[in-house]
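queue> holo job accepted (magnesium ion)
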Amino acid sequence: MNSNTSYEALSVDTLPQRLKDVPALVQHVGPDASGWHVQEVGDGNLNLVFIVSGSVGKVIVKQALPYVRLVGDSWPLPLYRAFYEYHALTRQAARDPGAVPEIYHFDEAQALIVMAFLAPHVILRRKLIAGEKVAGLADFLGRFCARTAFRGSELSMPSPDKKADVALFAGNVEIPAITEALVFTDPYFDAEMNSHTDGLGPVIAQLRGDAALKIKVQKMLQRFVSNTETMVHGDLHSGSIMSTESDSRVIDPEFVQYGPMGFDIGMLCANFLMAYFSQPAHRGADLSGYQEWILQVIADTARSFEAEFRHLWATERTGILYPASLFEDQGHDSAAACDAVLAGIWHDAWAVCGIEMHRRCLSLAHNADFEEIADVALRARLEARNLSMGAELIHTSDTIADAQAVCALARNFNRKDVL
Ligand code: SR1
Ligand code: MG
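queue> job finished
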């Protein structure tokens, strides 16, 4: 395909003809496009995703649509998000090698990325709903969050490079605007695209009537839009992770932006907590064993994050922040400084965690963990626990001791019937 031709959405029928001369497809799928098999598998909210198979192998072709797929063409969305996703993937690959799928080809005009087909990986959310464990998950995710947070910040990067990157990604305006609205704002008023499970009215009224809570959420939004600490994935939920029983990768960073270092790990923990609270609807006899495994993943992810962050602090602190010239070179241990930076990260993370727990039940784009619960009364009861714990996290984010305390809180709310 000539990348200078104007954008046109691919289809199962047109893809082979249009991509037949792209070297990456010839190499990874096979030279004879007439023998390619194309399947559209996109089940996300925004894009087209194709699996293309041939005599040599398979690739993923992901193409942005000029509108929000979930809503339709009444909500236009710029194609340039593929450009930012591509640049996010290249940076994540450099900062945590092997953590994201290999990119074979990028076509800016067609807003498409050709990347490695991951097999037999499936979306982690599906595994959590099915009650399947993933070995090494917490170590991988904690490391990924720590490496991308640290190596994308001025703790590590030369300041001019980091500032150039902030400027580059600042062009991604409409995508963060989705997060600013759907995550931070819409849950707390009667926004047009909101929806919620019948029966949650009293819990929602309590959240929206809590001015102190809304101040804390807005304070976090203020940090989200104005704090350019590091390049964040921006949408790190269990639908943005693909796993086998022992291997995981992170996908889909089109919500990339520069933001607070605690944003990704906070959103991630929220999605584990929602998986945890939804389990009674998905599991039979083995309920507590699997729920406890999810909490262990949260605690271990936090442990892995801290361990890797401290390691990078000791070995890769080459940026302008907390330089050795002010600490080690003068005989001062910088461990207390590292502790303080980590404490700030966790304060943000737990606030983001609570907010994400709210938005997935109240604004547009709910998650399957709860949405697939057919029994509406049960769904409301489980979502109410989740919403209440979210509020507690937002209120107490600055004083939560550690991830173990969050897990203890989750056990308490899991026993509480708020409705
Ligand atoms: C309109 S987009 C809604 C959600 O889908 C994406 O995957 C993000 O999670 C976003 O918030
Ligand atoms: Mg996505």
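queue> The chain is about 50% helix and 10% strand.
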